[in-house]
Amino acid sequence: MGFPEAIQVCLSKYSDFSGRASRSEYWWFYLFFVLMSWGVSVVGAITLEEGAATIPSLLLNLAFMLPSFAAGVRRLHDTNHSGWWLLLLLTVVGVILLIVWFASKSDEGANRYGQPPTS
């Protein structure tokens, strides 16, 4: 799955916590979010106003919160883990474990969360 397709899939499934998401789908969407955040910060810095990027950054984070959680849950499903493991984001050690799981190979074939992603 390429960059544009991953963004389209994640945004169209913004509230879909079922099924599975491939590594490429998850990481391309994550990169898109990072680039958007960076862009908002640069625009805020160029305006030379103190805190100019605060409101747009907050709005961007709010807009991407649900699709990011949904993509994370689907990615965990792809590695045959419950989406509840996403709560590990609240701990330092948990973040490391989640990064390992997000980077892990997908389960081959069907698992308890469905068929593997098509691309």
Description of the molecule:
- The chain is mainly alpha-helical and 119 residues long.
- The chain has one domain.
- The protein contains four helices and no strands.
- The longest helix is centred in the middle third of the chain and has 25 residues, at 54-78.
- The protein starts with a helix and ends in a 16-residue tail after the last helix.
- The model has no long low-confidence stretch (mean pLDDT 91).
Question: How would you summarize what this structure contains?
Answer:
The protein has 119 residues and is mainly α. The protein is built from four helices and no strands. Helix 1 (3-12) crosses helix 2 and helix 2 runs antiparallel to helix 3 (54-78).
Q: What value does the average pLDDT take? A: 91
Amount of beta strand? under 5%
| 3D shape | elongated
The helix count comes to 4
Order of helices and strands: HHHH
Radius of gyration: 16 Å
Strand runs, count? 0
Fraction in helix? 55-70%
How far apart are the termini?
A: 5 Å
Q: Unreliable stretches, pLDDT < 50, 5 or more residues?
A: none
Domains counted in the coordinates: how many? Answer: 1
Biggest beta sheet summary: none
Features:
mainly alpha; 119 residues
Write the layout of secondary structure elements.
Layout: H1 3-12, H2 23-46, H3 54-78, H4 92-103
Helix pairs in contact: 1-2, 2-3
